[in-house]
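> example.struct
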């Protein structure tokens, strides 16, 4: 009887250990395409938001702070100035002639690349850096790429003020809400049409030159920003990807006639603009450390993931 009992215990133990060994700890994802992280955040949003359809686009206005001089109102006001007149007010950190408004229209509350709700969306996994980004990391991403400059120290007053401002324009947006006006400049690289540079140049001369200049130098950071050349964004910027520039242009340009270009026309003129010289991003070798670099990254063939043979060829 003892032997039988011992047998049962042994069998039970064997089954138990086998079952346990099947429950492996969650492994690191092997692919980190942008799509998979987007799916993950979409899933997160659905779980945490009860009704995503009713998000209203109604950011608080700067006028509402007029006459207020408490510390947080003052911080928000300074933050607004840094976002709206970046290369003038933050010239120590900005390496070109742009302001955040040059791409995030109306200091982030306009139609083009709205930043309304952005502080409710971070922290977020960033596949290009291979790590989770806080809102400060993301702001600094635009400083070193879009602004061709240097990172703001995390404990600087300037960084605190920019976070104050972005949090102010995000008021009322629930944490992890599925924000319908967010990330509108994305499209699948595979869906990009074949581009025609000569046609792109024609469109540029007809529809863009008045505000962005014959040499791409522009007429002003918030009226017609530098679009190529030494005063524009560098080749590590999101806007330097053909897919992002195409969608941005199709949705937001020419100012006053937004949405008038077909996707083919937007892609042609984007390709023409991106074929011109612009500053190089010094940190390129560290991008996409886990592979998965999109094929429309301008320096796709040079970056680490490809050098190491991890990325798609
Ligand atoms: C040359 C264009 C350009 C400039 C200038 C620029 N950005 Fe961006 N920024 C982008 C693009 C492109 C994205 C990607 C999201 C998108 O497509 O809307 C982005 C994304 C962001 C995000 C994350 C948005 C989100 O919903 O995930 C933040 C925050 C941000 N920028 C802040 C700034 C700040 C602050 C400045 C000024 C210091 C700035 N950006 C200047 C092009 C630009
Ligand atoms: C009436 C003036 C005007 C015209 C015409 C115009 N833009 Fe713009 N562009 C702007 C302004 C102003 C911004 C800043 C963002 C905003 O306010 O929407 C901008 C921003 C941009 C940016 C991002 C910032 C940068 O420096 O790269 C791109 C790219 C761009 N425009 C491309 C184009 C293209 C391509 C055309 C022609 C199809 C065009 N624009 C026509 C005024 C204009």
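> example.seq
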């Amino acid at each position: 009887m003892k032997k039988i009992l011992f047998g049962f215990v042994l069998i039970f133990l064997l089954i138990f250990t086998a079952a346990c060994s099947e429950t492996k700890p969650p492994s690191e994802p092997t692919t980190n395409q942008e799509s998979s992280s987007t799916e993950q955040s979409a899933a997160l949003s659905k779980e945490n938001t009860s009704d995503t359809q009713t998000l209203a686009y109604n950011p608080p206005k700067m006028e509402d702070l007029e006459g207020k001089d408490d510390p947080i109102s003052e911080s928000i006001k300074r933050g607004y100035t840094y976002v709206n007149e970046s290369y003038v007010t933050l010239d120590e950190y900005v390496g070109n002639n742009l302001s955040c408004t040059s791409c995030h229209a109306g200091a982030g509350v306009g139609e083009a690349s709205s930043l309304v709700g952005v502080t409710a969306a971070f922290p977020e996994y960033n596949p290009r850096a291979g790590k989770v980004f806080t809102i400060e990391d993301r702001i600094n991403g635009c400083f070193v790429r879009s602004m061709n400059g240097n990172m703001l120290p995390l404990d600087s007053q300037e960084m605190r003020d920019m976070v104050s401002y972005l949090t102010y324009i995000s008021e009322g947006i629930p944490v992890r809400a599925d924000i319908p006006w967010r990330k509108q400049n994305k499209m699948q690289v595979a869906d990009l049409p074949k581009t025609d540079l000569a046609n792109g140049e024609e469109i540029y001369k007809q529809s863009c030159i008045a505000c962005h200049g014959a040499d791409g130098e522009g007429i002003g950071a918030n009226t017609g920003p530098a679009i190529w050349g030494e005063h524009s964004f560098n080749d590590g910027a999101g806007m330097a990807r053909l897919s992002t520039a195409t969608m941005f242009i199709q949705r937001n340009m020419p100012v006053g006639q937004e949405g008038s270009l077909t996707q083919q026309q937007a892609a042609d003129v984007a390709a023409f603009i991106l074929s011109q010289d612009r500053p190089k991003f010094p940190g390129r070798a560290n991008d996409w450390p886990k592979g998965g670099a999109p094929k429309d990254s301008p320096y796709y063939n040079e970056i680490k993931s490809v050098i190491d043979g991890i990325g798609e060829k």
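> remarks
Residues 114 and 182 are 7 Å apart (CA to CA).
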